[in-house]
Specification:
49% of the residues lie in helices and 14% in strands. It is α/β, with parallel strands linked by helices and 358 residues long. The longest helix has 30 residues. The protein is globular, with a radius of gyration of 22 Å.
């Protein structure tokens, strides 16, 4: 990583000047077999990708997004995503952001960003996408950028989950867990969280809710406004350490994401590895969640509003009541796909297949 050493750096982290990352000689000096570059295919980092490939190192380019990075991936879903990323018209600023995103994407995006992104992606031996839907979008995009030779390099390699997130036959409680940076109102939508959770504890006297992440003043005001019987079943836990979060998820039934968009959704992935099912809104900007619910492991709201989210949460809790959710089975499937050792093994396996040279 570039920059000076920081408190909390792992002992094996190599810090260096940014210029070295654009130097093939510097990469060669480390005698590496391969590199996984987390740079989103961004034109800004194309020289880093070029330096790694010029050093003769096998390069995996991680694409931490849902695939709709250009209108060329599909104009209608791309327009839908820009609407969502801008704030879905909730205020005047959201409309202005939407207009800016559209104008930029259809001008600079098509004639500057796309050619430079194609250059970046062209340096990779593998182009790794974090969900099947994202991979489909990238295959289409790479087919336009470089034909079948480039699109054939697109593979599915999800983000890795720490092995502490696992299910160990702990009793599951009727609890919904929500994790987020609640100050990020456009992406994490704390207003949706408050509406959906407020309605849920009002209609379901048995459910508990645990909200992880620093609470905003609005969240605290909402929590204090709940009737006592409901407030006692909603806990604002604030920042929670990894071990404590793993314990909480292991003992809970449902993970709920009120987000408007997620490139992957690592908190949801951690929850599934802990034997939770997931609930979120169905959206082009929540591509990974279509995959997450595919193994009898969750429900997506048919309508992306508080009423739709409430119905999805009630449906999912009902599935648990009917024993239609098996935490051991959910955890087993997703641990095999998402635990760090399995993701590493898949990356190595793909790197050993017949090489597709840039």
């Amino acid at each position: 990583m570039p920059g000076e050493s920081q408190t909390g750096d792992e002992p094996d982290l190599i810090r260096t000047e940014y210029a070295n990352l654009e130097s093939a000689g510097w990469w060669q000096s480390h005698r590496l077999d391969g590199v996984v570059l987390y740079a989103w295919g961004s034109p800004k980092y194309r020289k880093v990708a070029a330096a790694i490939r010029n050093a003769g190192i096998f390069l995996v380019l991680n694409q931490d997004n849902g695939g709709l990075v250009s209108p060329l991936a599909g104009i209608k879903p791309w327009l839908n995503e820009q609407w969502i990323l801008s704030g879905s018209g909730r205020n005047r600023s959201a409309y202005l952001r939407f207009l800016r995103l559209i104008l930029r994407g259809l001008s600079i995006g098509l004639f500057v960003t796309d050619p430079l992104r194609a250059c970046h992606l062209g340096h990779g031996n593998l182009i790794a996408c974090v969900s099947p839907i994202a991979a489909d979008y990238y295959r289409k995009l790479c087919g336009i950028y470089g034909g079948g030779k480039l699109s054939s390099r697109v593979v599915l390699i999800p983000h890795a989950v720490e092995p502490i997130f696992r299910f160990t036959s702990a009793p599951k409680q009727r609890r919904v867990v929500c994790v987020g940076r609640w100050k990020d109102t456009v992406q994490k939508r704390p207003w949706m969280l408050m509406e959906a959770m407020g309605s849920l504890v009002a209609v379901d006297a048995r459910v508990e809710v645990a909200i992880v992440g620093s609470a905003t003043p609005e969240l605290e005001t909402w929590h204090n406004s709940l009737p006592q019987g409901q407030r006692s079943r909603v806990r604002l836990l604030g920042f929670t350490g990894r071990v404590a979060l793993a314990d909480l998820l292991r003992e809970s039934q449902v993970f709920y994401s009120p987000s408007a968009f997620e490139s992957f959704g690592i908190a949801a992935a951690e929850a599934m590895c802990s034997g939770c099912s997931v609930v979120a809104g169905r959206s082009v900007s929540m591509a990974s969640f279509e995959w997450f619910i595919s193994e009898a492991s969750g429900t997506l709201a048919s309508e992306d509003d508080a009423k739709g989210h409430l119905e999805a949460l009630q449906h999912e809790l009902d599935r648990w009541d009917r024993n239609d959710r098996d935490p051991g089975e959910i955890a087993g499937i997703w641990q095999e796909r998402l635990h760090a050792d399995r993701v590493a093994a898949k990356t190595l396996e793909l790197s050993h297949r017949p090489r597709i040279e840039p």
